[in-house]
Design goal:
Largest sheet: 8 strands, antiparallel
Distance between the termini: 46 Å
Number of strands: 35
Protein name: Beta-D-glucoside glucohydrolase
Keywords: Hydrolase
GO biological process, one term: carbohydrate metabolic process
Number of domains: 4
Strand content: 25-35%
GO molecular function, one term: beta-glucosidase activity
Shape: globular
Helix content: 10-25%
Domain PA14: 396-540
Number of helices: 19
CATH architecture of the largest domain: Alpha-Beta Barrel
Mean pLDDT: 95
């Protein structure tokens, strides 16, 4: 490495610190240094794009295994699943000749609205830290560098490039850094991707405290820090404070990147020492040598093999969470189910092509309906109906929308203006998922234009419906067809002949301080009349509603507006439950949703986004071929107002103060005595487990010793199943506010019916510690600690006490 470094010219060194295409840095052929290629891919290697644009390269051989996102891995609470996930990613990245896979993501689910929660490992720092290590190791065992992201404090998409994160030091250390620390110290991650947001006034990628003091200082990180695409940095601060590679800055010429010609000029003028550049290049070369970029015998990887597809199925099967199962509605018995009614927006939805930089060009994807058909064959009649709420105006269904957001999902382009005449553009880079718009602050006037291409499915009369409070007009291919002004909510209609298969430019303008919704009644209606689907629900042997979110809701770049199920699903679910109380509600999504019908539902299943084998795995769960064993890695609140950022008024586009401190997620709910809808760690099984005989290796722990906690678990049910034993720690008499419970261990154990097994976990001084702002170090205070073992944070089965002393 030093020999290579000594032979590089200044210009060649500079060429290694910035991109030279959308996803690569330069080669230096005379020294055998190859172009280093990166790829998005937290749950599948992204399709190939053009070298110098975001357009698809239109390859026909860039299909990849579409894995369940990391929320499903977190819900498995299984280190083996994390390793399996990483091994598939690494192997497929190598097969696509990628050198760096941009994942895994470890930012925490602080806010249910956060658009990228689905990409990450839940809300708890300990859980995320434990799972990221085997994933990183597995990726890198394939001669591919992992890139753990986004360092640090990327907890919202609202104004993500400029919002200023300002947690106190204890919160930073205890909550938002442990997963990164574990990835560095235990996983030996070769690269880390910085976040978009600021940290105390400067971009996180060039924060001296985050990068030089902590990452490269205290932790001794020897790898590469690279930017996400289009971050707000500057040359001097980025160079001096530890940024190694700059990717994706929005300029016309790669030489104009901050770490390109501007950096070379600063070095030549003496403003930036050459040693600073040498350190960056040394790190880059170390990564390249470690992953075998100059090795003729480098691993070649495999892609889309049956083992990878089976891995996708196994991972989601381990992560599906059975939230509720009153009267043992589940599992279904095939011999008793001759007719199934399937409803819901996710019944036939495919999720791979969406979400942002995590989109995957899947070789195939099994929908929930297809999975049921594959499982049941011709022996069971499966009827699929599309239900719609009975609101007078529902947004035009996405089936009719031809325009796509860069994340792959249907979109209406949203332009905001400063004036009612729409003369001066305020913002033009936004979008919404459907033709419903509400102003962000009621009583505050807004002036907007919504645009999309609509493609009718059949020729004939389309009855346009407009519900508005304010002023609105609709133009189709430049011709105004609707215009109305109202001081209160008003409904108007207009019929127009449109041709099936033809694309029309729809432009909806709105001025006002309320809302507007554009809907229609179209020929060849997509939706089943309410009376018909409710009658079918009453007579079916089983009713399954596949609902929840999609990547129109969970997606990069935009946070959700609220925690409600979209498309009026709550109304439909409530009516189905009234018609058939045994209706199974199966939800997809990476973030919490409200469930106002929860008391009426007997069976609720949470399936995340399931990857390419989702439908098959879901059928396995529903019919008992696989016993559900997933546990929630996030808290499901009753309502958004119960969450800390909202309750403390700490969610906006300017600055985030992290007012709740270390009380993230379940810690907040316990501190505030707020009952969640479903608690962190919750997940039922088709069998039952009994905990007994907790033992501690010692009742008096001192200094650097460890303590072993052991408990007996017995499967007292009639089915084989797996249980996740969770260890929470309580500091009985701390000098600082500490959570009532903190996760400090977990272990997943598979047991046959009637079988018992022992689960052991260890605790060390770091597990007992909090970050002491006075000594700037971890501090374990002498005193009593309570060990609590349970099946969730609320379901504690066994307890024990030990004391800690310094001698």
């Amino acid at each position: 490495m030093e020999s290579l470094l000594s032979q590089l010219t200044l210009e060649e060194k500079i060429s290694l610190t910035h991109a030279n295409t959308k996803f690569s840095i330069a080669a230096i052929e005379r020294l055998g240094i190859h172009q280093m290629w990166m790829s998005d891919g937290p749950h599948g290697v992204r399709h190939e794009i053009e070298r110098y644009s975001w357009n698809s390269a239109n390859w026909d051989d860039d299909y990849s295994t579409y894995l369940p996102p990391l929320t499903a891995v977190a819900a498995s609470w299984d280190l083996n699943m994390a390793s399996l996930h990483g091994n598939v990613l690494g192997s497929e990245a190598r097969h696509r000749n990628k050198d760096v896979i941009l994942g895994p993501g470890v930012n925490l689910a602080r806010l249910p609205l956060y658009g990228r929660n689905f990409e990450y490992l839940g809300e708890d720092p300990f859980l995320a830290a434990k799972l990221v290590v085997p994933q990183v190791k597995a990726i890198q065992s394939n001669d591919v560098a992992a890139s753990v992201k986004h360092y640090a404090l990327n907890t919202q998409e609202l104004n993500r490039t400029s919002v200023d994160a300002k947690p106190n030091e204890r919160t930073l250390r205890e909550i938002y850094l442990p997963a990164f620390e574990a990835a560095v110290k235990e996983g030996n991650t070769l690269t880390i991707m910085g976040s978009y947001n600021r940290y105390y006034g400067t971009n996180a990628n060039q924060s001296k405290h985050l990068v030089m003091d902590i990452l490269k200082g205290e932790w001794g990180y020897k790898g590469v820090l690279l930017t996400d695409w289009n971050v707000d940095i500057n040359t001097y601060d980025a160079a001096m404070n530890g940024l190694d590679i700059e990717m994706g800055t929005d300029v016309d010429n790669f030489d104009d990147y901050f770490l390109a010609q501007p950096l070379q000029e600063m070095i030549e003028s003496g403003k930036v020492p050459l040693a600073v550049l040498d350190d960056k290049v040394r790190r880059i070369l170390r990564v390249q040598l470690t992953i075998g970029m100059m090795d003729k015998n480098r691993l070649s990887g495999q892609r889309n093999i049956s083992e990878h597809h089976q891995a996708a199925r196994d991972i989601i099967a381990s992560g599906v969470v059975l939230l509720k199962n009153d009267d043992n509605v589940l599992p279904l018995e095939q011999s008793k189910v001759k007719s199934i009614l399937v409803l819901g927006p996710n019944a036939e939805m495919l999720h791979s092509q969406g979400g942002g930089s995590s989109e995957v060009k899947a070789l195939y994807e099994i929908s929930p309906v297809q999975g049921l058909k594959d499982r049941l064959g011709a022996s069971t009649e499966i009827t699929v109906m599309r239900a719609q709420n009975s609101a007078s105006v529902s947004p035009i269904a996405t089936d009719y929308m031809a325009t796509r957001h860069w994340t792959g999902t249907p979109q209406w382009e949203l332009t905001r203006f400063t004036d009612s005449q729409h003369n001066t553009v305020l913002r033009s880079d936004d979008w919404i998922a459907n033709s419903a718009y509400r102003v962000s602050e009621l009583s505050q006037a807004e002036y907007v234009l919504l645009k999309t291409k609509i493609k009718p499915l059949a020729t004939g009369s389309h009855r346009l419906k407009l519900a508005l409070d304010g002023q609105a007009s609709l133009s189709i291919d430049g011709e105004q067809v609707l215009r109305h002004r109202s001081q209160s909510l008003t409904f108007i209609e207009h019929s127009i002949i449109l041709n099936g298969g033809q694309e029309y430019n729809f432009e909806l303008r709105y001025n006002g301080s309320g809302s507007v919704v554009l809907g229609w009644e179209a020929p060849g209606a997509l939706f089943t009349p309410e009376s018909e689907y409710l009658a079918a629900a009453k007579s079916a042997d089983a009713v399954i509603y596949f609902g929840g979110l999609s990547h129109a809701d969970d997606r990069e770049a935009i946070d959700r507006a609220d925690m409600k199920l979209p498309k009026g699903q709550d109304e439909v679910i409530a009516k189905l439950l009234a018609a058939n109380p045994n209706t199974i509600v199966f939800l997809n999504g990476g973030s919490a949703v409200e469930m106002p019908w929860v008391d009426q539902a007997k069976a609720i299943v949470w399936g995340w986004y399931g990857g390419m084998e989702a439908g098959n795995a879901y059928a396995d769960i529903l019919f008992g071929d696989v016993n559900p064993s997933g546990k929630m890695p996030i808290t499901l609140p009753v309502k958004l107002a119960d969450t800390a950022p909202i309750a403390l008024d700490d969610y906006n586009g300017l600055e985030t103060l992290y007012k709740e401190g270390v009380f993230i997620g379940y810690r907040w709910f316990e501190q505030q005595k707020i009952k969640p809808l479903f608690p962190f760690g919750h997940g039922l099984s088709y069998t039952q487990f009994k905990y007994s005989d907790i033992t501690l290796s010692t009742s008096a722990l001192s200094d650097d010793e460890i303590i072993r906690v052991t408990v007996k678990v017995t499967n007292i049910g009639k089915r084989e199943g797996s249980e996740v034993v969770q260890l929470y720690l309580h500091d009985v008499d701390a000098s600082v506010p500490r959570p009532i419970k903190e996760l400090k261990g977990f272990n997943k154990l598979a047991l046959k019916a009637g079988e018992s097994g022992l689960v052991s976990m260890t605790l060390n001084r770091r597990d007992l510690s909090f970050w002491d702002v006075n000594t700037h170090d971890w501090l374990a205070e002498p005193g009593e600690f309570e060990v609590l073992l349970g099946s969730s944070v609320e379901d504690i089965r066994q307890k024990a006490i030990f004391t800690y002393s310094l001698e």
